[in-house]
């Protein structure tokens, strides 16, 4: 049963929920439970957005650094 719930969550692009939905407590009724589930997904998406942003910056920096090194080597008066 849990596997099908998690599979459906992933199909719906709710990977944050698929990982941690069991940790959300049903406390004050359905509305609160759904709100807590949505907050969990939003936190996960924000964390993923930040991670992706950092990885993109690192990747861009790496490409720029390699281009600079390549330029320096090609402009050097000595043979490498």
Structure explained in plain terms:
The protein has 80 residues and is an all-alpha fold. The chain has one domain (2-75). The protein has helices spanning 2-11, 15-20, 30-75. The protein starts with a helix and ends in a 5-residue tail after the last helix.
Report low-confidence residues grouped into runs of 5 or more. Answer: none
Q: Indicate the overall shape.
A: rod-shaped
Class based on secondary structure composition and strand pairing? mainly alpha
How many beta-strand runs? 0
Query: Largest sheet at a glance?
Result: none
Task: Provide the domain count.
Answer: 1
N-to-C span: 62 Å
Strand content: under 5%
Tally of DSSP helical segments: 3
SSE topology string: HHH
The Rg value, from CA coordinates, equals 23 Å
**What do the pLDDT scores average to?**
85
Helix content: over 70%
What does the secondary structure layout of this molecule look like, with pairings?
Layout (H helix, E strand, L loop, with lengths): L1 H10 L3 H6 L9 H46 L5
């Amino acid at each position: 049963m849990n596997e099908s719930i998690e599979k459906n969550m992933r199909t719906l692009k709710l990977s944050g929920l698929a990982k941690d939905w069991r940790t959300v407590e049903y406390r004050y009724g359905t509305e609160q439970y759904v709100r807590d589930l949505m907050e969990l997904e939003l936190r996960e998406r924000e964390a993923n957005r930040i991670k992706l942003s950092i990885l993109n910056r690192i990747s861009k920096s790496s490409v720029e650094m390699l281009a600079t090194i390549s330029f320096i080597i090609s402009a050097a008066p000595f043979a490498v």
